[in-house]
Hints:
Elements: H1 3-26, H2 33-46, H3 55-84, H4 106-113, H5 117-127, H6 133-140, H7 144-172, H8 175-178
Helix pairs in contact: 1-2, 1-3, 2-3, 3-6, 4-7, 5-7, 6-7
Amino acid sequence: MSNDEIFAAAYREHYWAVSRYVARRLDGRTSEVEEVVAEVFTVAWRRRADLPAVPLPWLYGVARNCLANAVRGYGRRRRLVDRLGNDETAHGRGTVAGPDTDPPGSWVHEALGRLSPADQEVLRLTAWEELGVDEVAVALGCGSRAAAMRLHRARRRLRAEIDRLRPLAAEALPEEHRHG
């Protein structure tokens, strides 16, 4: 198979997995998902001779870099909008959430959000993308032992955050669910 055919097969097979990966990490900024995914596959096209036999973890690694660039760009745009005073709150269009708007399990996401970006990423690669340690290593650009250690430490830190939040989560439950 030629490099072009290998790229085409990787694109067909992994486009939606890469799209889901990017969408989960942009958390509500869906207008940027297609742009980032296009950038991932542009990089993959330029480096099609480097595509490994199992390209998905490699594509996730490219996506991580593209996301980092997009997040930096988003931050620059946000600061510009703030300086211009043209944000939603300045014009009274802000939305106030009601007391019952937290989605189920939001405290787990809160615990995850308290971790470092590196810890969040290694946990998401294993939970959301369902990668094994060897594949995580490829996505993160490190060795398998380092990936396994990062995952172990991230899980330990997540458990500590969950334990810290658990009393708060228990208070949020209705009385009939607290003692089970």
